[in-house]
Design goal:
Length: 121
C-alpha cells in the first residue's frame, strides 16, 4: 500500500477487536504511546479540575489537549494518520483501553500475543 493510498482509504473492520489490533499497530512506537498517555492524562486532569473549581465549560479543553498530544505523536513520531479520522468513537475508546493496558503493565503481553507483534490479531 502506498502512502497516498494509506491516507485516502479508511480501512473497514468486522469487529471492534479487529479495529483494536489495527489501533495498536498504528501506535507501535513507544514514544507515540507516551504522547497519548500524556495528552489523555493532562486532558482528564483539566476536565476534573474544571468541575472541581466550578468552571465546567473548561472541561471541553480535554479535547484539544488530548488530541493535540495524540495527533502530534502520529504526525511527528509515528508518521501516520490518526485512526480518529476514520473511526472516531472506536479510536476514543481504544485510547483509554491502550492506556489501561499501559498503566497495568499488560500492553507488552497484548502486543506479543498478536501474530505480528504489533497488535494485529
Amino acid at each position: 500500500m502506498t502512502e497516498e493510498t494509506a491516507i485516502s482509504e479508511t480501512p473497514t473492520f468486522l469487529s471492534y477487536d479487529e479495529f483494536f489490533g489495527f489501533y495498536l499497530q498504528q501506535h507501535s512506537d513507544p514514544a507515540n504511546r507516551v504522547m497519548h498517555a500524556v495528552g489523555t492524562t493532562l486532558g482528564f486532569a483539566v476536565a476534573i479540575a474544571a468541575f472541581a473549581t466550578g468552571h465546567p465549560w473548561y472541561a471541553l479543553l480535554f479535547f484539544p489537549i488530548g488530541y493535540g498530544f495524540a495527533w502530534t505523536g502520529h504526525l511527528l513520531i509515528e508518521e501516520n494518520v490518526p485512526a480518529t479520522f476514520g473511526h472516531p468513537f472506536w479510536s476514543f475508546i481504544s485510547d483509554f483501553r491502550m492506556l489501561g493496558l499501559m498503566f497495568t503493565g499488560r500492553l507488552k503481553a497484548r502486543l506479543d500475543a498478536s501474530p505480528d507483534g504489533q497488535g494485529h490479531s
